[in-house]
Amino acid sequence: MDEEIKEVEVVETEAVEETAPEAEQEAQNTERVGNIKISVDVVATIAGVATMGCDGVYAMAGTFAGDIAERFGAKKKNANKGVKVDMSETNASVDLYIIAKYGVRIPELAWEVQEAVKNSIESMTGLTVDKVNIHIEGVSFEEEEPEIEEEPKADEPEE
Fold first, then answer.
1. Which domains, and CATH codes, for the chain?
2. Which backbone phi and psi does 49 adopt, to 5 degrees?
3. pLDDT at residue number 122
4. DSSP-derived 3-state class of residue 40
5. 139 contact partners, CB below 8 Å, separation of at least 6
6. What is the dihedral of CA 119, 123, 128, 130, to 10 degrees?
7. Which has the closest alpha carbon to 47: 104, 112, 114?
8. pLDDT tens, residue by residue, 135-151
9. Residue 73 confidence (pLDDT)
10. pLDDT digits (tens, 9 = 90+) for 97-119
11. How do 91-101 and 57-60 pair as beta strands?
């Protein structure tokens, strides 16, 4: 009985030795499939959306020229407004320019935004976020963003 067990062990060892180079070759092939390049705009959009999802953030601050162009319709609103990203192949640094709601504790807001942005970028892109710098550019006294009132339809009589 001991002889049978030894033969089985030898067979198993040989099978492992034969499959190891194949598995190694498959791993090398998957690495050579291609490159993944993530645009700075994509990272900026992720950061902007994560920032706006935090309670206490009223809006993102843009540049003066960008705000004027947006008001006249030359530039569309985008989620990466108020976001500056510096990227290397594996790392990213983010600067956020925020308008906070009045009454919010700014240090707590900044910490919440930093964590949300860092977690979102790292989980979605695989990049390592070195730092998230928060720049509070203003404080808004409005409770909510102004809502656009709907104009009455032509078919409905005005009251």
1. 42-105+114-140 (3.30.70)
2. -65, -40
3. 95
4. helix
5. 58, 99, 100, 101, 102
6. -10
7. 114
8. 999 999 876 554 434 44
9. 62
10. 999 999 999 999 999 999 999 99
11. antiparallel
